[in-house]
Design goal:
The chain has 279 residues and is an alpha/beta fold. Helix content is 43%, strand content 19%. Helix 1 crosses helix 3, helix 2 (54-64) packs antiparallel against helix 3 and helix 3 (93-123) packs across helix 4 (142-151).
């Protein structure tokens, strides 16, 4: 769960950066429109999608022009068919045109993330496994994409380097051992979750002996993951990672692991095709 204060800060940072990037010293094309022209525009999706990103759109137009009225035609998290309406905007025609691209960029990216996650979570139906995101997000959109993952039905892994430990190969080498790294983590931040990445059964035993909270099975085969699940016997949560796609996701889940993490759900996101037209 993303803390509300962190989410609010991310939204404001995102929209301010997007508006500055797009408008710069002023929207010269919008000046073609008389300043007192009032418009009304509808945004539709041209393909099936899960709606995500409404807080960004609300905040963007509030920042750009508080007089713009937004009438949402669907709710956050709704699954929509092609050509379904998302929202209707009313207000200064200049404002609608100036905010169009920045607004659609957020909607198409976050809805694309949520849509992909919803599809993958559906493949896990009937298993006990949860889908996790990673830190492999688009630059400066970490919180936004992780929010979209949650809208799609996935679960957030750590938000950054500050809220949980993930002890990987290089950390282990630098610390001297898995046990040394875990002990140091408990000293540094006793209340933070500790996860250890392992590549062998010997390392799995070391992580179990050190009482890691979560153990990431890096590129284990399905047979080895099944063995690891039996061997661990609930002493730690197990996360599968590495070379996991939609094609093998279900098979990995059926090994009995608690989590599957996939960087592709955020770093390889396909934007939804949206369209805004004046009505």
């Amino acid at each position: 769960m993303i803390p509300q204060s962190l989410l609010n800060n991310a939204i404001q940072h995102n929209i301010q950066a997007a508006l500055q990037e797009d408008i710069g010293t002023g929207d010269i094309t919008a000046l073609l429109i008389p300043h007192d022209n009032v418009g009304r525009a509808r945004v539709i999706t041209r393909e099936p999608m899960v709606l995500a990103g409404t807080p960004w759109i609300n905040a963007l137009f509030q920042q750009l022009d508080p007089q713009v009225i937004i009438e949402w035609q669907a709710q956050e998290g709704d699954y929509l068919s092609a050509n379904a309406p998302l929202l209707i905007l009313s207000g200064s025609a200049r404002s609608l045109l100036t905010g169009e691209r920045a607004a659609l960029n957020f909607l198409q990216t976050l809805s694309g993330t949520a849509t992909k996650v919803r599809e993958l979570v559906g493949l896990l139906s009937g298993t006990r496994t949860e889908l996790l995101d990673t830190r492999k997000t688009l630059p400066c959109l970490r919180i936004a994409q992780k929010y979209a993952v949650s809208i799609g039905g996935g679960r957030n892994h750590r938000l950054g380097l500050f809220d949980a430990f993930l002890i990987k190969e290089n950390h282990i080498m630098a610390a001297g051992s898995i046990n040394a790294a875990v002990l140091a983590a408990r000293t540094i931040a006793p209340n933070k979750p500790i996860e250890v990445e392992v590549e062998t059964f010997a390392e799995l035993d070391e992580a179990l002996a050190a009482q890691a909270d979560i153990i990431m099975l890096d590129n284990f085969s399905n047979d080895d993951m099944r063995t690891a699940v039996k061997h661990t016997a609930g002493r730690a949560k197990l996360e599968a990672s590495g070379n996991i796609t939609a094609d093998n996701l279900r098979q990995v889940a059926e090994t009995g692991v608690d989590f599957i993490s996939m960087g592709a759900i955020t770093k390889d996101v396909k934007a939804i095709d949206l369209s805004m037209r004046f009505i």
